[in-house]
Design goal:
Layout lengths: L1 E6 L10 E8 L5 E6 L6 H19 L6 E5 L4 H4 L2 E2 L2 E2 L19 H7 L8 H18 L5 H13 L4 E8 L1 E2 L2 E5 L3 H11 L3 E5 L7 H16 L10 E9 L5 H17 L18 E2 L3 E5 L4 E5 L6 E2 L4 E6 L6 E5 L4 E6 L4 E2 L4 E7 L12
Parallel strand pairs: 3-4, 3-7, 7-11, 9-10, 10-12
Antiparallel strand pairs: 1-2, 2-4, 5-6, 8-18, 9-11, 13-20, 14-16, 14-19, 15-18, 16-17, 18-20
The structure holds zinc ion (ZN).
Length: about 375
């Protein structure tokens, strides 16, 4: 295992941040990139990373990491230092309010021009050519803040990987994945090994999250260049939501790490011995089919359903109760699906998101992710 420290802070800063990455195996073969807690206060991801580090170190020492695996155990040192009134605050950059998991570059337009005359009928050769240009494009990025220096450092390690796992968690939630529609099939072993309750897919979520910076360009390029120039979806990038922010236990972390090791085995990055992928898993559903249940007014929140529950349209998910009059609004699902996130607060104000339900029928469009 090699440890790499990347400085994030410019000279004359009052604080100094650096990013640590662990590197296993060697470059040249199948490559996986895994990062934890880009939203810095999402602790389950960081504990899973520690369990992964132990397993990867042991496999590497035994010569069983046959490809390359990069693990970033705490992907957001800037956000880790942010606390407001004793509450960790790691989702947004406090200096400008920007979500650390939004605003990554989509290199499709530059690649369209750069690749003219450079592609052929060999898909593997095309992948190599596109990755070479991608590495060059990321290297050209000129960050103007510590946060964009961080984003560039992360993307530099991930942009040419075959597998990218961006580990997060919800406020309260059951384990679920976000992937590109083109990646549903290749993500299935991961979903089954991890026991995901939902796999939410889209060809473009809006907001430019990290996983799409690594994956979306592939299907956009394939569509643009057409069948004479075969371009596979060469990067299986997924945002992995590891339940809720207090779903922090050694047992869960060990289980999740073992599932990820299993997927890396299936994808040829390492040899973990016998790995059995469960036969059954959840059917992927469109991100456009997720119903957001938002609070129509302020009130006390009492949930009647648990995360992971299958619900029917018309069923009450939660009651919202005025704390003075006792007047109660029943918040109902409008779709059949799986309740996969809830809120951890129990007094909320108008407009806050109470729950999300993964339905099978698309009905939303536009920007599909939370702020
Ligand atoms: Zn997150």
């Amino acid at each position: 295992m090699e440890t790499v420290k990347t400085p994030l802070s410019a000279p004359y800063g009052s604080v100094y941040c650096e990013l640590t990455s662990y590197h296993f195996g060697k470059p040249g073969g199948p490559k996986a990139y895994i990062q934890a807690a880009l939203h810095a206060d999402e602790v389950p991801a960081m504990l899973v990373a520690q369990e992964l580090r132990k397993r990867l170190q042991a496999l590497d020492a035994a010569g069983k990491v046959t490809g390359e695996v990069i693990l970033v155990p705490a992907a957001n040192p800037i956000g880790l230092a942010q606390v407001i009134n004793e509450r960790p605050f790691g989702r947004f950059d406090l200096s400008n309010g920007i979500n650390f998991n939004r605003g990554y570059p989509h290199y499709f337009e530059q690649l369209k021009t750069r690749l003219l005359g450079q592609l052929g009928s060999n898909a593997e050769a095309n992948v190599r050519t596109i990755r070479r240009h991608l590495r060059e494009l990321v290297a050209l990025w000129q960050p103007t803040s510590d946060a964009t220096t961080l984003k560039k450092a992360l993307l530099e390690m991930a942009i040419d990987a075959d597998v990218v796992l961006d580990m997060h968690c919800e406020n309260e939630g059951e384990l679920h994945l976000y992937v590109g529609t083109a990646l549903c099939e290749i993500a299935q072993p991961l979903s089954k090994l991890m026991g995901a309750c939902a796999v939410l897919h889209t060809s473009g979520a809006g907001g430019e999250p990290f996983d799409e910076a690594c994956s979306r360009l592939w299907w956009d390029l394939a569509e643009h260049f057409g069948p004479d120039y075969p371009i596979p979806s060469a990067c299986m990038a997924a945002t992995v939501e590891l339940r809720g922010e207090v779903s922090v236990s050694y047992e869960l972390a060990a289980r999740d790490a073992q599932a990820i090791i299993g997927y890396l085995h299936v994808r040829g990055m390492l040899d973990a011995g016998a790995v059995t992928v469960p036969e059954h898993g959840c059917a992927p559903t469109p991100l456009e089919g997720v119903q957001r249940l938002d609070a129509p007014h302020a009130g006390m929140l009492v949930y009647l359903k648990e995360v992971g529950d299958k619900v029917r349209a018309g069923e009450v998910i939660a009651d919202l109760i005025d704390p003075v009059s006792g007047d109660t609004t029943h918040l109902k699902s409008e779709v059949d699906g799986v309740l996969f996130t809830r809120l951890s607060h129990r007094y909320i104000i108008r407009g806050m998101n109470v729950a999300k339900i993964a339905g099978a029928e698309p009905f939303r469009s536009g920007s599909l992710l939370s702020l």
